[in-house]
Specification:
The protein is about 55% helix and about 15% strand. The protein is α/β, with parallel strands linked by helices and about 260 residues long. The protein has a four-stranded parallel β-sheet. It has a four-stranded parallel β-sheet with strand order 6-5-7-8, with helices on both faces. Strand 7, helix 11 and strand 8 form a beta-alpha-beta unit. The longest helix has 20 residues.
């Protein structure tokens, strides 16, 4: 029997369907939904997210240390999956460890696997530096201790947090927040943070447990300033590091660049 027309069309289209880039992503949380849900709206077509999950119990250095052995096992498996780059997701992970230790872990990861390593936090710093941002507003759902740690980490990257609005939720509370409530909260926190810090040059809405992509175009249009989330910074940094020129329209100034 010959090849059916429909089958032939599928075969002819296989080159277009095959991923041209695989991003390995180690998430802090055992169950993940919002990260891939938003990734495939922000990333250029054909970019694949390959996830591996930790089980972070809290936003503390002890909780992060507990998961490091699993992180290295995941890195090994992701390497075998043929990923082009590995990102350790989660701003609280970087904030808990501190920048010096994070950079040591990234260097060790590259040595172990031969694959470039990064984190959401380092990608955010790279993006803010690229945009020329030195004064930042933050809207977060975290308690003040974690927000202080995030601000201290960013300062080491040349970015000063001059305004922030937080809702002071625990990890358990963030995990159970309804999607619609989180979406409204992202806009409210971001708007309040920018209103309270008119000298801020950009807004960051960190965190992977809530849907925030809608807030990027909305708040950028309202305030005329760049708005970043974990994923927009990570996708931008990944494309830039790979030397790939694939601007993404409709999701903010950063990805459009």
């Amino acid at each position: 029997m010959g090849v059916r027309p429909q089958e032939s069309a599928i075969v002819d289209n296989m080159d277009n369907l095959e991923p041209w880039y695989r991003l390995g992503f180690i998430t802090p949380h055992q169950f993940v939904d919002n990260v891939p849900y938003q990734f495939y709206r922000l990333a250029p077509p054909g970019m694949m997210l390959v996830t591996a999950n930790l089980d972070l119990a809290d936003y503390t250095v002890e909780a992060v240390d507990h998961e490091l052995a699993l992180l290295w096992r995941h890195a090994e498996r992701l390497t075998k999956r043929g990923v082009d780059r590995i990102v350790i997701g989660g701003v609280p992970v970087g904030a808990a460890l501190g920048r010096e230790r994070v950079q040591a872990i990234l260097a060790e990861g590259e040595k172990r696997t031969g694959i470039p390593f990064s984190t959401d936090m380092e990608n955010i710093i790279s993006a803010l530096n690229y945009l020329g941002v030195t004064k930042l507003a933050i809207g977060s759902r975290w308690h003040e201790g974690l927000n202080d740690a995030v601000a201290a980490y960013l300062k080491l990257g040349g970015v000063e947090v001059i305004g922030r609005k937080a809702s002071a939720r625990s990890l358990a509370e963030n995990e159970t927040l309804k999607t619609s409530d989180g979406m409204r909260l992202a806009v409210d926190l971001g708007r309040t943070a920018l209103e309270a810090a008119p000298d801020a040059e950009a807004l960051l809405l960190p965190g992977g447990l809530w849907v925030t992509i809608h807030a990027i175009p909305l708040l950028e249009a309202e305030f005329g300033k760049p708005v970043l989330i974990n994923l927009s910074a990570t996708i931008w940094a990944t494309l830039r590091a790979a030397g790939l020129s694939k601007p993404v329209q409709g999701w903010g100034r950063l990805l459009a660049s």
